[in-house]
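Blinded run. Sample ID left blank on purpose so nobody reads anything into the name before looking at the predicted structure. Input follows.
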Amino acid sequence: MIHFKYGFDVKAFALCKKTKCMAAKPLQMHQIRRILELVIENYSTRKIAQLTSVARRTISEYRLLVEKTDIPLKDLLQCDDETLSAIVYHKSALPPKDIRWHYLETRIPDLLLELKRTGVTRKLLWEEYKNDNPDGYGYTQFCDHLARQLRIRDAVMHFQHTPGDQLEVDFAGDKLHYVDTTTGEIISFEVLVCTLPFSQYAYVEAIQSQKQEHFIKGLSNALYFFGGVPKSIKTDNMKTAVVAANRYEPRFTEAMEFFGNYYGTTTLTARVRKPRDKPSVENAVANTYRRMYAPLRNIIFTSREELNHALRLQMEKFNSAPFQKKDHSRKILFEMHEKEILKPLPDLLYEIRHTTQSKVQKNYHVVLGEDKHQYSVPYTLIGKTLKLIYTADTVEIYLEQKRVALHKRNTHRYGYTTLIDHMPANHAHILEARGWDAPYFLTKAKLIGINTHDYVERILSSKSFTEQTYNVCLGIFRLGKQYGAERLEAACTRALNAPTANSRTIQNILKNGLDKINEPEQLQIPLHENIRGNDNYN
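Blinded prediction complete.
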């Protein structure tokens, strides 16, 4: 209820209502003020109508309303628009607020909280509301009021971003894949998306996993792509970066703290389940699906390097494309206004380095326990305990302070990575004496059959270090002695269609007699004078 120090004349209001005053469109406040000014200057109604382009009858009706208030015209002109409107249109005489809405309004905050709980529906809330208030709104009006309040509380604030202020980081929900040509296995990769909110300049990379070493390596790659460091980096509340989520003081992992200190930036997190805290990268993820995933959807990649190269090309197109209805792109905006503001980068890329130890086995290999993968070292170190220092990409092996081996990291479990320089001379001599090399095995396989030759050739090419496949080839030849050359050739013929090549596949075919089952032959059309051939269509 609005209170004024001036009252109004109920009889004047009734008279105005009787004469259908305000039946037409009400005048604006500036029009009413102009009429009052002219009345004070003693202009006639006809003259006021000429000066204001308002009908004389309308002017008369408003003069009657104003004069019946018993408020001096000069005082009315001093009122603000809201007060003047209330006096002229007698808003204080309107009926009181709907009692039903007054009751519902007090319960709106609790109802909206209840609506977020699992299994709670509008129908259930309305039934509970009607039990407490039988004379309340029907279901449709109840839902309408709830929806209106949700829209009001769902208002979005526009933030004005500062160049070089922040980097927003997130993972795409859908993964990308490539096919391992040696095993036929489909390898999945997480997709890291980073963007600078001011320019919307984006960086996208497929990384092995969300583990700390891969995540931080991806973040470092993003900073070197941008060519500088922003003041802060905002991530989601992912376990990779945050030990304990908290709205005001989240605890970051030690690795993330070291990362921030190394690059001289501050790490921040969005609130839990609040994607609008980092809207730029959320939008960048959506654009990644549309502008990068979609164009690459029908391409089969055979390595992570190939996949990331394709992503980099699509990313360049996306960043260089002009904004809608604008004459500049993300890349132009970044290079003109943001790149120079970023802090300089250190000379070396920051990577998490893990340390472990392993004893050299009799096969002159050490085991990296995390991957269950073996790496060769010089055979003279058999029996010694060596230190392994490894990152997401490399494995360095040390004897005290001296590095004795360097390998590219391979996460294939129970696999071997071997350098021929690490082998003892007698092993090479034995191989040479036995004649074990790729041509030896291929020649021996060709004597059995052409399909056996092709299958053994697949096995020999399945490892970067060919010597590791020799035992597999020997195993296949032993199966030939056990089951016979004819059956071995039939088994290899059938196994050529398998995604991987190994002795276990051949053994299963022979053991289960699948080599004896003939493939269905194609129906041959018999020659007949009434059947046309190719010559008839020249």
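Unblinding after everyone has recorded impressions. The first helix runs from residue 10 to 18.
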